[in-house]
Amino acid sequence: MTITAATALQDLSQTDRILSMLVYLENVLVVFDGFRALDIDVFGLYHNELRVVIGPNGAGKTTLCDVISGKTRASAGKVYLNGTDVTSASETEIARRGVGRKFQTPTVFDSLTVFENVELALPRRRRLWQNLWGRTTSDEHDQIQSILKRMRLSDEIHKPAKFLSHGQRQCLEISMLIVASPQLLLVDEPAAGLTDDETALMADLLLELRGEHAIMVIEHDMDFVRRLGSTVTVLNEGRILAEGSMDEVQANPQVVEAYLGR
Ligand code: ADP
Ligand code: MG
């Protein structure tokens, strides 16, 4: 290939994009048995950005999370994290590089207390978790208490997790993620199954966390998405249909047809 001024510039701007964004996906294809679950030309997340991904069932939202967190490998294309090519990196490696993933179903230990669950999620503890000498320092103790206060769980700190409401479990799971200070939180349908009050609280919590972590939220609940007031990416049949403010995407006829009008 001949290197011209134009291609050099193109390369430079692409390099710039890769380097300046926390997450950058280019020409990413995820194919399951010949079916294109994800087909993304370009997708990027900025540092400390709060982004919502919406789209009908089967649109590829969870697959997008999976490909960023390394749970699923891209069949083609490139995934960058902080300017590093992580397309072939393992889930563990990507977690180590600062990506925390919250699944739809909470994965807390029922018989352990709220505090103990977060304690086990300490990054140092996760590495040494079979070692007896991994004692929690007083700094870590304070850190856990301040996270739990923030997540409105101060009153439940010594309760076994099995006594928490569904909403409180979601908050506990987010606490377990943020104790590792991830650069990016991937949160799949945090408002699912929550009461109206809990949904409002979850939105407030995510807004509070914005600025400290980038957060990518997958969500169905439109009131919740409105409340977050962030940039929305609309996925449909594996492709990005639109990106913009909620008002912008809601005014997009293709989006109305694919999703919001249903
Ligand atoms: P969403 O989260 O938007 O509802 P998903 O990302 O879960 O959608 O799924 C996108 C499409 O990919 C769906 O048609 C789904 O059936 C398919 N899919 C997802 N994961 C797999 C898998 N592991 N094997 C085969 N098909 C899958
Ligand atoms: Mg999903």
What does this entry look like structurally?
It contains 11 helices and 10 strands. With 262 residues, the protein is of the alpha/beta class. Strands 6-7-8-3-9-10 form a 6-stranded mixed beta sheet, sandwiched between helices. Strand 7, helix 8 and strand 8 form a beta-alpha-beta unit. Helix 4 runs parallel beside helix 7 and helix 8 runs parallel beside helix 9. The N terminus is likely disordered.
In this entry the ligands are:
adenosine-5'-diphosphate, magnesium ion
The radius of gyration computed from the alpha-carbon positions, rounded to a whole number of angstroms, is 20 Å
Number of helices: 11
Average predicted confidence as pLDDT: 88
Topology (elements, then pairings):
Layout: H1 5-20, E1 23-32, E2 35-45, E3 50-54, H2 61-69, E4 76-81, E5 84-85, H3 91-96, E6 99-102, H4 114-120, H5 123-127, H6 138-150, H7 166-178, E7 184-188, H8 196-209, E8 214-218, H9 222-228, E9 231-236, E10 239-244, H10 246-250, H11 253-260
Parallel strand pairs: 3-8, 3-9, 6-7, 7-8
Antiparallel strand pairs: 1-2, 1-4, 4-5, 9-10
Helix pairs in contact: 4-7, 8-9
Bound molecules: adenosine-5'-diphosphate and magnesium ion.
Magnesium ion (MG) binds at residues 61-62.
Write out key terms for the chains shown.
single chain; 262 residues; alpha/beta; 6-stranded mixed sheet; 4-stranded antiparallel sheet; 11 helices; 23% strand; globular; disordered N terminus; binds adenosine-5'-diphosphate; binds magnesium ion
Q: What's a concise summary of this model?
A:
The chain has 262 residues and is α/β, with parallel strands linked by helices. The protein contains 11 helices and 10 strands. Helix 8 links the parallel strand 7 and strand 8.
